[in-house]
Amino acid sequence: MQNQSVKKRKTLSHEKEVLERLLIYKTKIPDQVYQEIEQLLGVEWNKKKIYSWWNYHIKKSD
Predict the structure, then answer these.
(1) Dihedral sign, Cα of residue 49, residue 53, residue 51, residue 29
(2) Which domain of life does this protein belong to (predicted)?
(3) What is the DSSP letter of 43?
């Protein structure tokens, strides 16, 4: 089996605009906010991916 690398997908500008709303939450994102963000971003984003983006940016801003 070949070793395949997974390409990282760049976050698009309209996605960043939606995701940046999460940065007001410093410790936890409410479930209803996850649902709202998932609906706005579409099928390429799930709760885990949204959390990863938020967690990275919250730690980066400290």
Answers:
(1) negative
(2) Eukaryota
(3) T
CA 56 from centre of chain: 9
Overall residue count recorded for the chain in this entry: 62
The whole-model pTM stands at: 0.82
Residues 6 or more apart in contact with residue 54 via CB below 8 angstroms:
19, 22, 23, 25, 29
What tokens appear for 18 in the block? 């939606």
* Neighbour count for residue 50 (Cβ, 10 Å): 19
DSSP 44: T
